[in-house]
Amino acid sequence: MNVALVKNDSGPAASSVFAAAQGRLPGTGKVAEIRRDAFAAFERTGLPHRRIEEWKYTDLRALVRDVLPLAGAPDAAALARAKAAVAEAAIEGATKLVLVDGVVATDLSDLAALPSGVTVRMLRAVLDEQSNDSRADLLLTKTSDPMLSLNAALVTDGVVVTVADGTQLSSPLQLIHVATASKAARYSRSHVRVGQGARVTLVESAIAAAGAAAYQANDAAVVWVGDEAQLSHVRLMRDASDAVNVSSELFTIGAKSRLNLFNMTSGAAVSRLQAFFTMAGEGSELIVNGVNLLRDKQHGDMTLVVDHAVPGCTSRENFRAVLDDRAHSVFQGRIIVRQDAQQTDGKMMTRALLLSDEAEADSKPELEIFADDVSCGHGATAGALDDSLLFYLRARGLPEKQAQALLIQAFVGEAIEAIEDDHLRERVIASAQDWMEARA
Amino acid sequence: MALLEIKNLQVRVEEREILHGLTLTIDAGKVHAIMGPNGSGKSTLSHVIAGKPGYEVTGGEILFKGEDLLAMAPDERAAKGVFLAFQYPVEIPGVATMTFLRTALNAQRKARGEEEYSTPDFLKKVREISKSLNIPQDMLKRGVNVGFSGGEKKRNEVLQMALFQPSLCILDEMDSGLDIDALRIAADGVNALRSPERSMIVITHYQRLLNYIVPDVVHVMSKGRVVKSGGKELALELEASGYAQFEDAA
């Protein structure tokens, strides 16, 4: 390998980070080998930059610069701070699975009170098992991406969740990522397998405990939605305002099933959700709604790749960005329709609301269609609040900020409405309102 | 007593003067019609009273209940009792009519230092008004004016008027785009709101509307000024002879 030939600012720092982390990374043998290969794959590019097409608008080399050292295992004080943050983020009635700085915190999680049909193991424990060679695949994905490779190299823990066939969960599972460390990085990877005919609501929250600043989060989730299963997945990203969060999610969707993903990002200085969906069974439905609420110099990226590998599936993507100050939002949507995937119905829409002249929205929709009997389309808009609507509201007595807030709420409302769970939807609406109230 | 006093008002839009020294006084409890040809400045006048951005007042003043109206933001004017019924009410997708009505009413009450309405009181009030205006309840659940017909949009304006109880109502071309039945329902709604404390400015191109909302005073506007004022018979006179005579007068 000609690693040394690649000019790479993050190279030396990253390799020393990897070397220093060795003692903390679970797994030996095959697992360790996969980690080394993954790190080598990362090193070939280093932090992704604008010359890598998929990262054109989110140049981590410019935005992030360094790969920070791995966060230490959380101590008692860190766990106490995490506990307070978790209490605030917890969804009423949800089964909590808490990771602190990339390590499962058993005391903060509801592992002893799991709903029937649900089993949870810690990735760390699985990788450390003697017979771990058979589970080394937990670190492998068919998607290649530098940040996903870095995740495989440095992952410390995660949850491995199995929901048995036919299980109907009446309350959500909530995966909570808490940062307590500052100027350190975390790498987690979780696996969720939703059995045939099962119904699950999975909430994923990213939050910072008091005092956590300038951290880097790299969390991955690998999710299987079984045949005739339904998964509602709601992500609420409220990282510290100077943090970096790169999340990768990989979904494989079986036949006659339904995945409804909602993501709202209002935190982090730099964030990206890259989600890869494989429609692997016929007659399934994918719904993705995303909202970015960004201000100051925040940079938020949502990148979606939908692979229609089989016939007769529908996918709907709807993305809304509200951008104030000098914020920058990116939407990239790629829909691939394989030759066999006839009767595919795939559509995406992205809209940006610019509240300031200096805000920026980029969108890159791509359709790659190899089948001939399909219905696919995309649309994109960007603009300011409509003055005629604002005047109407003000003429009815709403002060300027309140009139703006009502219109912003309406703008994001269409995406938020897709959340099926009433309680969760109300939480998300309240969270969006908090963001707007902070504008004044 | 004068509710609204407009003195020598001069207004520009992008370097072009639209109102050239307009003077008009409206007493409490009176209905004034303002008629005039297209381009005479009728809608500009209504927009300036309501505070729409984009108009530059270069001279004159507007006093509302003795206060300087031009110094107030549009929402302050609404809270003080100015209501403009739009010629073309906008559609606001994603904002349910009920939410809008309640937010607006409570914003006005808050600005006046009054207590906000409780939910049951508010709902009761809206139901009563919408029933009298023949507005179905499910319309109120939809986005503001989204998918409403022209008549429904105008009735929604009248509903707001009835709910907010303003002291000055400006009806900008309320008859535009309405058939006779829709016009009658909207006009009945307006007439029900006539009271000794409430004044109205009815802006219209045609005399037809004034058969339904009978004015106390009629003004003719031409080229940015009021060129003639008279009783309700002036409207009939205009219907017969047209506006041409005033084009020269201005």
From TrEMBL, chain B:
Signal peptide: none
PROSITE patterns assigned: ABC_TRANSPORTER_1 (PS00211), ABC_TRANSPORTER_2 (PS50893)
Keywords: ATP-binding, Nucleotide-binding
Database matches in InterPro entries: AAA+_ATPase (IPR003593), ABC_transporter-like_ATP-bd (IPR003439), ABC_transporter-like_CS (IPR017871), FeS-cluster_ATPase_SufC (IPR010230), P-loop_NTPase (IPR027417)
Domain ABC transporter: 4-248
Coiled coil spans: none
Superkingdom per UniProt: Bacteria
UniProt xrefs under Pfam families: ABC_tran
Similarity section: Belongs to the ABC transporter superfamily. Ycf16 family.
Function field: Involved in beta-(1-->2)glucan export. Transmembrane domains (TMD) form a pore in the inner membrane and the ATP-binding domain (NBD) is responsible for energy generation.
Name of the protein: Fe-S cluster assembly ATPase SufC
Lineage summary: Bacteria, Pseudomonadati, Pseudomonadota, Alphaproteobacteria, Hyphomicrobiales
Gene expressing this chain: sufC
